[in-house]
Design a protein that fits this description.
Strand order of the largest sheet of chain B: 1-2
Structural class of chain B: mainly alpha
Radius of gyration of chain B: 21 Å
Number of helices of chain A: 20
Shape of chain B: globular
Oligomer: heterodimer
Largest interface: A-B, 34 and 32 residues
Strand content of chain B: under 5%
Distance between the termini of chain B: 27 Å
Largest sheet of chain B: 2 strands, antiparallel
Structural class of chain A: mainly alpha
Number of helices of chain B: 20
Largest sheet of chain A: 2 strands, antiparallel
Distance between the termini of chain A: 28 Å
Number of domains of chain A: 1
Strand order of the largest sheet of chain A: 1-2
Chain lengths: 512, 482
C-alpha cells in the first residue's frame, strides 16, 4: 500500500525532535522537560500503533515505503519501509519507551537523561525501518552514543567501565560491518554499474557477488550483529552494561537494543547473503545453543538479581539465533515473536528488579528474602513475568520458544534437543531466584518494604496484558509475520541448495 | 590570491595602535576575503568553457584542487585567529605579530596548494614553516614553548633538506621540476633505470610526510603540539597539515600517477604505521593536548588511506577528510585553549572533570568534536571516514580499510576517556570538582567554536554539497603552450 503520509519518517524524526526540545528546556524546569519527554514517547507510541493499523497483513513485501535522496554521489537515500518482520519490533519499541520513561525517574539531571533516551528511541526505530544500508549503519551506530551516556551518567557502581566496554565492543563489531557494507556496494556497482546502498536492489541482484566473497561479507556483518545480540563468546559486555545501566537503560538495552542484532541477522544476514547464511548456519546454531546453556548455567550462579536477568538474556537470545538459522517458517516466526516476547518480559523483569533495588538499595539475592509478605502485589506481578520468561504455556514466552523448538527440530535435531534442556534450566534459575527473594519470612528491612505504587502498577499493566494476550491468542501477530518470513525463506531457498523440509512449512501447505 | 593576503599582512604591520581585538578582526576579514576570492575562482575553474589555468610562467596552477585547499586554509586561519584573540590578551602577548605570522604561514600554505612546480612547493613550505617555528615559540616565558620551537625548527630544517634533495633527484631523473612537464616526460619516456626517480619519490615522501606528521616522521608532533600556544597548535593541526597534504596529493596522485605501482605499497605501509602508532600511543597519554596530537597523527593516517587508493574517489575522500578535520580539530584545540587557562597551565585530564556541570555547552561542543573525530554517524567525521574507507574498499585495499576502522575504535577509546572526565567523574556534592576554576568563554572563541560545531553537525546531516565540492576539486595537469 502506498500512502502519501510519511508515517515512518515522522516516527523516526519525532523522538529526535523531542530530544532537541527537551534539551532546550531551561534549566530547573524539570517538570516541563518531563512532560515533553513523556509526551514525545506517547506520540511515538501512537505513531507506531498507526503503522500497525496501516500495515496490510497479507502483503509480504515492504510497506509504507518512503524514499528521499540523501547523498546523491553515493546513491544513498533516506529509504524506509516495514514488513512483517520489523513491524512488531517497531511497535515494541514504540510501546516500551513510554513504559521506561514513565516507569523510572532518574536520580539527577532529568533533562539530559530524557534527551538521551529520546535520541535513543529515534535511533532504534530508525534501525528497524531503514532499507538503505548506509542509513541502517548510521542508525545502528548512533544508538551507541545515548546509551553510552545513559550508562555512564546515570548508572550504578562500575558504570564508566561498563559504558566504555559497551561502546568499544559494539563499535569494533560495526567497524567490520562498515567495511562489509562498502565492499558490498562497490562490488554491486562493479557488477551492475549502479552505485547504490539500497537493500532490496542489492539483495535481489543475483550473481553480483561471488560465493566466496559473499561468505566473507556475511562474516563481516555477522561480527557486528553477533556482538550486538550478543552471541557467545562475544557477550562479555552484556552483563556489565545491563547490570550497571540505570533501570530504564536496562529495559531498553534488553528490550530493544539486543534485537538490533537478531533483526540484523534476519534482515541483512539472511536476505543479503542467503547462501553464506546457510553455509555458516551450523556455526551460528552451535554458538546459539552454547549461549542457551551457558547463559542459563551462569545465570543460576549469580548473586546479583540484575546480573541474573542479564545472563538470562544471553540464553534467550540463543533461542532466537537457533530459530533464525533453522530456516523454517516456524523457526523464523518463533524467532521474530520471541524477540518481541523477550523485549516485553525481560523489560518487565528489569523494571521489577529496579523497583526492588530502589526500595532496598541492594540487588543481592542473599540480602533479600520474604518479600512476598511485605509486597504481595510486586510478588504477584513478578511471578507472572517470571513465568512468561520461563516459558509457561498460556503466556507469551511459551509461544516463541515452542515455535522455535518445533521449527528447528526438523533441520537441526540434536541442537534442538540440547536447547530444550535450556528451557528446563531457565525454569530452574528463575524459580530458585524467586524462591530466595520472595519466599520465607522477611527479616529486617525486607519486612518493611513498601508494595508497588499505583503508578508502577499502571506501568506494568500494559506489559502484563501483552504477556497474557500474546500467550493466549498470538494468531493476529503470527499472521502478519508469516508472509514476510515465507518470502525470506523462499529467497534463501532460491539462492542456495537449502530446501525447507515439507513438515516445517506449515503456512505453505497450499503451495505445490 | 596569495599576493592579496601578503599585501594585507603588510598593511597590518603598518597600522598604529588600534583598539582591542582589531588585529584578530583584521586577520579574520583578510581570511574571509581570501575565501571569497577562492569562491570566485571556484566559479572560474569549474566553468567548463574556461577551466583551470596556470599562471606565473606555469609555476602555479589555479584549479579546483588549489581552490579547495585555499578554502580549507583560510577557514583554519579565520578560526584560529578568533581563538588567538582572547588567548593573547590572556597571556599578555597581544600585538600584531602572531597574526602576521599566521597570515604569512597561511600564505605559504596557499602557495603550496597552488604550486605547479616542485620549487614552488619548496618555497611555499619554507614560508609556511619558518613562520610556524616562530609561532610555536611565541610564548617566550614558557619553557615548553621554547622547546617546542627548537625541536620543530631543527627537525623541520632536516625535513626541508630531504625535500630539497628529493626535488633535485626528481629533476635529475626527469629534467624538470614542473609538474606538467614531469608528467608529460614520464608519459612519453620509459626510464631504463628509474632508481634516481624512485629515490626522489622516497625523499619527497619523507619531506612531506614530516609536514603531515605521518609515522615514522611524526616524532616532533606530540612535543610541538603540546608546547606550542594552543591556538597555534590548532593552526598547526589544520592549516599546516592541510598544506602538506595538498602538496603530497598533488605530487603523487596527479604528477606521479603513472608510477602508482611503485609508490602505493610505500603509502600503504606509511598509512598503516600512521594509523596504528597514532591511535595506540594516544591511549597511553594523560595530557589532553598530547592525546589530540597523537590522534591527529592517526587522522593523517586516514587521509593517507584515501591517498593510497590512488583513485578519484580516494582523492576526493582525502579532501573531504581534511576539510571536515579542520573544523573538528580547531574546535577541539579551541576547547583546550579555554580549559587550559592562563599560561597553558593545565591540560591534564583532571582539568576536564565535571566540565559538563561547570560549562554544559562547552562540554557538549567538545563532545561533538570528539565523537566526530571518533567517526560517530551524523557528524562530518563519520562521512569523512566513510568516504576514505569507501575509496580504499573500491580500490580493493580491504586489509587497509579494516586496519583503519580498528584503529578508529582504538582512538574512540581516547575520545571517550575525555568525555568520561567531562561527564562521569563527578559525584554530587564533590567539593574537589567544585573547586576547579571557572572556565571563561570569550565571545570570539565562542564564535569560532560555534562555527566549527555547526559545520560538523550540519555536514553530518546534509553532506551532499560538500561531497560534491570535494568530488569536483581534483587537480588538473595543464601544460602551458607547446
Amino acid at each position: 500500500m502506498e500512502i502519501d503520509f510519511p508515517l515512518l519518517s515522522l516516527l523516526v524524526v519525532a523522538p529526535a525532535v523531542g530530544a532537541v526540545l527537551v534539551a532546550l528546556v531551561p534549566k530547573g524546569n524539570d517538570a516541563l522537560a518531563r512532560a515533553l519527554g513523556v509526551g514525545t514517547t506517547l506520540v511515538a507510541a501512537v505513531l507506531s500503533i498507526g503503522v500497525l493499523v496501516a500495515f496490510e497483513g497479507a502483503d509480504a513485501g515492504f510497506q509504507l515505503t518512503e524514499r528521499y535522496t540523501w547523498i546523491e554521489d553515493f546513491g544513498i537515500a533516506w529509504n524506509l519501509g516495514v514488513d512483517g518482520i520489523s513491524l512488531f519490533l517497531v511497535v515494541l519499541t514504540g510501546l516500551l519507551f513510554p513504559v521506561a520513561v514513565i516507569g523510572v525517574r532518574p536520580h539527577h539531571d532529568p533533562r539530559a537523561y530524557l534527551a538521551w533516551l529520546l535520541l535513543l528511541e529515534a535511533g532504534c526505530l530508525g534501525v528497524f525501518v531503514a532499507l538503505d544500508l548506509f542509513l541502517f549503519f548510521v542508525m545502528f551506530e548512533i544508538v551507541l552514543v545515548p546509551m553510552y551516556f545513559l550508562i555512564g551518567g546515570w548508572g550504578y557502581g562500575e558504570r564508566v567501565y561498563a559504558a566504555l566496554k559497551f561502546f568499544l565492543f559494539t563499535m569494533l563489531g560495526s567497524a567490520f560491518m562498515l567495511v562489509g557494507i562498502l565492499a558490498l556496494a562497490f562490488l554491486h556497482q562493479r557488477a551492475t554499474g549502479v552505485l547504490t546502498f539500497d537493500l532490496v536492489t542489492i539483495a535481489e541482484a543475483d550473481g553480483a557477488i561471488a560465493q566466496t566473497t559473499a561468505r566473507w561479507l556475511f562474516l563481516a556483518f555477522a561480527v557486528a550483529f553477533a556482538v550486538k545480540v550478543p552471541v557467545f563468546p562475544l557477550h562479555t559486555w552484556l552483563p556489565d552494561a545491563h547490570t550497571e545501566a540505570p533501570t530504564a537503560g536496562s529495559v531498553i538495552l534488553a528490550g530493544v537494543m539486543l534485537k538490533l542484532g537478531t533483526y540484523g541477522f534476519l534482515r541483512f544476514g539472511l536476505y543479503l547473503f542467503p547462501e553464506a547464511a546457510t553455509y555458516f548456519a551450523p556455526l551460528l546454531v552451535t554458538l546459539g545453543v552454547i549461549g542457551i546453556i551457558y547463559g542459563a548455567v551462569v545465570a543460576a550462579m549469580q548473586r546479583d538479581l540484575k546480573r541474573l536477568v542479564a545472563y538470562s538474556s544471553v540464553a534467550h537470545l540463543g533461542f532466537i539465533i537457533l530459530g533464525t538459522f533453522a530456516f523454517t517458517t516456524q523457526g523464523l516466526q518463533g524467532g521474530v515473536i520471541q524477540m518481541v516476547n523477550h523485549g516485553i518480559s525481560t523489560g518487565a523483569l528489569f523494571l521489577l528488579v529496579g523497583m526492588i533495588s530502589e526500595r532496598r538499595h541492594t540487588r543481592e539475592i542473599a540480602k533479600l528474602g520474604g518479600l512476598q509478605k511485605a509486597a504481595p502485589l510486586l510478588a504477584g506481578v513478578f511471578t507472572v513475568v517470571m513465568l512468561s520468561s520461563v516459558g509457561l504455556p498460556g503466556l507469551n514466552g511459551f509461544v516463541g520458544e515452542f515455535l522455535i523448538l518445533i521449527g528447528s527440530f526438523p533441520t537441526r535435531r540434536w541442537w534442538t534437543v540440547v536447547a530444550t534442556a535450556g528451557v528446563i534450566l531457565a525454569a530452574l534459575y528463575l524459580l530458585w531466584a524467586y524462591q530466595r527473594v520472595f519466599h520465607g519470612a522477611p527479616e529486617g528491612d525486607n519486612a518493611a518494604m513498601p508494595d508497588m505504587t499505583r503508578r508502577e502498577l499502571a506501568v506494568m499493566a500494559p506489559l502484563l496484558a501483552a504477556i497474557v494476550f500474546l500467550g493466549v491468542y498470538p494468531k493476529p501477530v503470527l499472521e502478519r509475520i508469516e508472509p514476510a518470513v515465507d518470502r525470506l525463506i523462499a529467497h534463501v531457498e532460491e539462492r542456495s541448495d537449502f530446501t525447507q523440509p515439507e513438515v516445517a512449512a506449515t503456512g505453505r501447505g497450499e503451495q505445490p | 590570491m596569495g599576493g592579496a593576503l601578503f599585501l594585507l599582512t603588510a598593511a597590518a604591520l603598518a597600522s598604529g595602535r588600534p583598539p582591542r581585538g582589531f588585529y584578530a578582526l583584521f586577520t579574520v576579514i583578510t581570511a574571509v576575503l581570501a575565501m571569497v576570492g577562492s569562491a570566485l575562482a571556484w566559479g572560474r575553474v569549474t566553468d567548463p568553457a574556461r577551466g583551470a589555468y596556470s599562471a606565473i610562467g606555469d609555476a602555479i596552477m589555479v584549479d579546483g584542487f588549489s581552490v579547495f585547499f585555499g578554502i580549507v586554509i583560510t577557514v583554519a586561519i579565520a578560526l584560529a585567529a578568533l581563538l588567538a584573540d582572547d588567548y593573547l590578551r590572556r597571556e599578555g602577548l597581544d600585538g600584531p605579530e602572531l597574526y602576521v605570522l599566521m597570515l604569512l604561514s597561511g600564505t605559504g600554505g596557499l602557495v603550496m596548494a597552488m604550486a605547479n612546480d616542485l620549487i614552488v612547493v619548496f618555497l611555499g613550505l619554507e614560508t609556511l614553516s619558518i613562520a610556524l617555528y616562530v609561532m610555536a615559540g611565541f610564548q617566550l616565558r614558557r619553557l615548553e614553548s621554547q622547546e617546542s620551537a627548537i625541536k620543530y625548527f631543527v627537525l623541520g630544517s632536516f625535513s626541508s633538506a630531504f625535500l630539497l634533495y628529493g626535488i633535485a633527484l626528481v629533476y635529475g631523473a626527469t629534467g624538470s621540476t614542473n609538474f606538467s612537464r614531469i608528467a608529460d616526460f614520464l608519459a612519453d619516456n620509459l626510464l631504463a633505470a628509474n632508481g634516481l626517480l624512485l629515490a626522489g619519490f622516497a625523499l619527497l615522501l619523507v619531506g612531506l610526510g614530516f609536514k603531515v606528521a605521518a609515522v615514522p616522521f611524526h616524532v616532533w608532533t606530540p612535543d610541538v603540539y603540546q608546547g606550542a600556544p594552543t591556538p597555534v597548535t590548532a593552526f598547526l593541526a589544520s592549516a599546516s597539515k592541510a598544506a602538506g597534504f595538498a602538496a603530497l596529493l598533488r605530487v603523487f596522485l596527479s604528477t606521479f600517477d603513472l608510477y602508482r605501482l611503485d609508490w602505493r605499497p610505500i603509502m600503504w605501509v606509511l598509512a598503516v604505521l600512521t594509523l596504528v602508532v597514532g591511535s595506540f600511543l594516544a591511549v597511553v597519554q594523560t595530557d589532553v593536548k598530547r592525546m589530540l596530537a597523537y590522534s591527529s597523527i592517526s587522522h593523517a593516517g586516514f587521509v593517507l588511506v584515501g591517498a593510497e587508493a590512488a583513485s578519484d574517489r580516494g582523492l576526493a575522500g582525502a579532501l573531504f577528510y581534511l576539510l571536515a578535520y579542520t573544523f573538528m580539530v580547531v574546535g577541539s584545540f579551541g576547547v583546550a585553549t579555554l580549559v587550559g587557562r592562563r599560561g597553558d597551565a593545565d591540560h591534564s585530564l583532571p582539568a576536564y572533570r565535571g566540565l559538563s556541570q561547570r560549562r554544559p555547552l562547552l562540554a557538549l561542543a567538545f563532545t561533538v568534536f570528539l565523537l566526530a573525530q571518533a567517526g560517530v554517524p551524523l557528524t562530518s567525521g563519520f562521512l569523512a571516514k566513510f568516504y576514505v574507507i569507501g575509496a580504499a574498499v573500491e580500490a580493493e585495499s580491504y586489509a587497509l580499510a579494516l586496519i583503519a576502522m580498528i584503529s578508529a575504535v582504538v582512538s574512540a577509546f581516547v575520545y571517550l576517556r575525555i568525555t568520561v572526565a567531562m561527564y562521569m567523574t563527578v559525584e554530587e556534592g564533590d567539593d574537589a570538582a567544585a573547586a576547579l576554576p571557572f572556565v571563561r568563554v570569550p565571545p570570539a572563541a565562542a564564535l569560532s567554536l560555534g562555527i566549527a560545531l555547526v559545520f560538523t553537525v550540519v555536514v553530518g546531516l546534509v553532506p551532499s554539497p560538500v561531497v560534491d565540492f570535494a568530488r569536483d576539486a581534483l587537480p588538473v595537469l595543464v601544460s602551458a603552450g607547446p
